[in-house]
Fold this sequence. Notes:
Layout: E1 2-4, H1 8-18, H2 24-42, E2 48-54, E3 59-65, E4 69-75, H3 82-88, E5 93-94, E6 96-101, E7 108-114, E8 123-127, E9 130-131, H4 135-146, E10 152-155, E11 158-159, H5 161-170, E12 175-178, E13 180-181, E14 184-185, E15 191-192, H6 198-203
Parallel strand pairs: 1-12, 4-5, 4-6, 4-8, 8-10, 9-11, 10-12, 11-13
Antiparallel strand pairs: 2-3, 6-7, 14-15
Helix pairs in contact: 1-2, 2-3
The structure holds 1-O-pyrophosphono-5-O-phosphono-alpha-D-ribofuranose, uracil and magnesium ion.
Amino acid sequence: xxxxxxxxxxxxxxxxxxxxxxxxxxxxxxxxxxxxxxxxxxxxxxxxxxxxxxxxxxxxxxxxxxxxxxxxxxxxxxxxxxxxxxxxxxxxxxxxxxxxxxxxxxxxxxxxxxxxxxxxxxxxxxxxxxxxxxxxxxxxxxxxxxxxxxxxxxxxxxxxxxxxxxxxxxxxxxxxxxxxxxxxxxxxxxxxxxxxxxxxxxxxxx
Length: 206
Ligand SMILES: O=P(O)(O)OC[C@H]1O[C@H](OP(=O)(O)OP(=O)(O)O)[C@H](O)[C@@H]1O
Ligand SMILES: O=c1cc[nH]c(=O)[nH]1
Ligand SMILES: [Mg+2]
């Protein structure tokens, strides 16, 4: 299932991120704000279970999270979406998957993996700002399923129709949450209108 999050503050922030004149410091700060809004929406489906709590006046029923949360950024750009998740769920574990997209073939190349064993029993959120061809996201989700994950969501900032279709075909069980569904991929497999190379814009490497 695809959810395009609709919020005026998210729309304004996304416009700042699309703007080619936004410098990387402001880009990073704005992406941290965006990560809170996306995390808030993506975490909406977390299961809770009852717990007794004593107020200063009496005992009553409350809620606690029923499952562990694991957040897995796809390096590098996914790091920009971790803040919001760990702000709301400070006890969340964070795994890392290193992948870059080969410039000629556009296929993802794996270079790092450090995933907590608890993924098998956790609600797992894979985060990466850009879902373009879907190769990186599909590879990341496949890797986590091999490690035992069964309850996965993919959270991004900008999605291309081609990437959404690929996840739908290869990982129909995974919910996708995005701030925007853009028009198309160009000949270089960049998202149009998009925001350019997310990693370079976050880290100032262009
Ligand atoms: O859907 P795809 O076609 O696979 O493209 C999306 C991937 O490309 C970008 O990463 P990039 O390869 O630029 O690495 P970086 O984060 O280190 O910049 C982006 O952050 C995704 O991981
Ligand atoms: O538009 C795109 C496509 C892939 N990766 C990016 O960072 N941007
Ligand atoms: Mg990049």
